[in-house]
Every structure is written in structure tokens, then in C-alpha cells.
Amino acid sequence: MEIGFSNAERAEVLTQALPYIKHYTGKVVVVKYGGNAMINEQLKQQVMEDIVLLHLIGVKIVLVHGGGPEITELMDKLGKKPEFVDGLRVTDKETVDIVQMVLAGKVNKTLVNLLEKKGGKAIGLSGMDGRLIEAAQKDPRLGYVGEITKIHIKPVWDLLNNGYIPVISTIGCDREGNAYNINGDTAAAHIAGALGAQRLIMMTDIAGILRDRDDPSTLVTDITVDQARALYDEGIISGGMIPKVDCCIRAIEQGVKNVVIMDGRVPHSILMELLTNEGAGTWIRGDKA
Fold first, then answer.
1. Average pLDDT of 224-249?
2. CB neighbours of 260 closer than 8 A, spacing ≥ 6?
């Protein structure tokens, strides 16, 4: 049953958001989109609504997406078993073709279409377009898994300055034209850094950095880069959270004002983060506490 709000209550909500709208209008916000929010259809619709709303109030928003489950699904259909080394997908020539088909094709164009249906203006790019993501082989054991060597950011600026939402799939290439599978968090950090973004939002399947991984009430809501590094030593940031926080720190070192790791499973979490006082998830910043 829909909860009813009076017109006065709706107006109050909008006026409370006004200072945040003024702060972000004309600023660049990069969203790394993946995880459960990408698989769950209802959450996907809500994420697209959040992005279009921000776009319509003047935020220069960039969507960087992954698509690991969809890649695995197509590999299963083709009878190709995924292999992983240190948590990274081994990508032979056949697999990188599959990755390119899924990310630059199906997933990217589906997201562009959804944004357009919600009232936004979106154009899809892969990291190969305009050599946006230039890469080299990361490790011979991983095959066509790439390490970013350079970001050519002009195509993204061209789209932003012409009123579009760039939707970027994380396929890179080298100067010989070889395609590489690029980690989505790493790509988002580099792209946000090249744009000098006001904020990078990393959508995940957990609430953020937890002092006790089994207790959501232990969420660390606000932390500096130095404090985050200290949490490595304490063992609080561990496992799969280490590379994600590494990407956040890299983004800040490259010029991003601040980064948020947040739970993409929470409906409208992007709007909660940007347009309310409470925010959502763990906010990582570069200045001293």
C-alpha cells in the first residue's frame, strides 16, 4: 500500500533537498554500478530513476558499469567454464570476445535504453571508443585482463558538455587494438580522477566499511584516507574490501573530492547519499580528521 503524503509534506521534502541540489548542480558525479542493484530488476529501475533525476537537476553524472553475472551466464550457455586467479577472471581470446559482446553490447545498451525511457539523455561508450581506456596486459596468467595505462577523457567531457549521461563499459585496448577486460572499480576510479569529480559513488552489496562485518550497526560513516589505511593494519578492511578501498584511495589521490562506498541494495540510495543530510554508506575523504 502506498504511503500518502500531503502536498505540504512533499514541498517540505523538496525544500530540504535544495541546498544539496545547489551544491551538486554543474558538478561531476561518477557512479560505479554493479552487484545486486544491477541484477534485481526493481532496484535497477530505481537506480536509473535516481540517475535521471540528478541529470535533470543539472548534475553531470557518469555511469560506469560492470556485468560479471551476465558474462558468466553467456559463458555457461556457450559451455565455457570461468576460471579465476586471485579473484580476477582469466580472460583468453574467446572470453574477451564474450566480455566485449556482453558489456559493450547487451548490458551497455540496455542501460542506455532504460535511462532514455526514464526521461534522460544517454549515450553508451566502451573504453575502446576514442581510446577512452588505454591498457596493457596486467599478468600473463590472466590473459586479456588489462591494467590501465592512460585515460583519454575528452569523449566523456564532450558528452557531458552536450547534456548527455555517458554510460561506460569497462573494456580497454592497447595501441595494437587488443581488447582487455578491466576491473570496474579500477576503471571508475581512474575515470573519476581524470574528470576531477566532486564525488565517486561505489555501489556494492554491503552497507560500507563495517568494524564488525556481521553487524551493520558498526558501519564507519566518515573516514579519512589516513584512517582507512590504519583500518588495514587493524584487519577491519580485509578480503574483497581491500581492492575496493584501494580504488577509493586512488581516486582521491587523482583529484576526486570524496568517495562513498554504499549499499546498492537500498532503494534510492544514490538520492539518499547526495540529497539528504544522513547520506548512505562510508564516506572517504582526503583531508585530515
1. 85
2. 199, 200, 201, 202, 208, 273, 279, 280, 281, 282, 283, 284
Is 111 domain-assigned?
Answer: yes
Provide the CATH number for the domain around residue 72.
3.40.1160.10
pLDDT grade for 232, boundaries at 50, 70 and 90: confident
Dig out the grid coordinates for 193 from the structure: 580522477
Cell 561531476 sits on residue: 28
Total count of domains within the chain = 1
Question: Is the predicted pLDDT of residue 288 greater than 60, yes or no?
Answer: no
Task: Report the half-sphere exposure of 181 (CA within 13 A, side-chain side).
Answer: 25
Helix H or strand E segment including 47: helix 41-56
Encode pLDDT of 144-188 as tens digits. Answer: 999 999 999 999 999 999 999 999 999 999 999 999 999 999 999
From CA 260, how far away is CA 237, in angstroms rounded? Answer: 15
Q: Is residue 7 part of a domain?
A: no
List, for residues 106-153, the tens digit of each pLDDT value. Answer: 999 999 999 999 999 999 999 999 999 999 999 999 999 999 999 999
CB atoms within 10 A of CB 243: 15
For the chain, give percent helix, strand, coil, nearest 5. Answer: 45, 25, 30
Query: What strands, in cross-sheet order, belong to the sheet with 171-173?
Result: 146-151, 133-137, 171-173, 179-181
In the chain, count H helices and then E strands. Answer: 11, 14
Where do we find the cell 550497526? Answer: 217
188 within domain boundaries: yes
* Residues labelled catalytic: 32, 35, 68, 185, 244
Claim: this prediction has a pTM higher than 0.85: yes
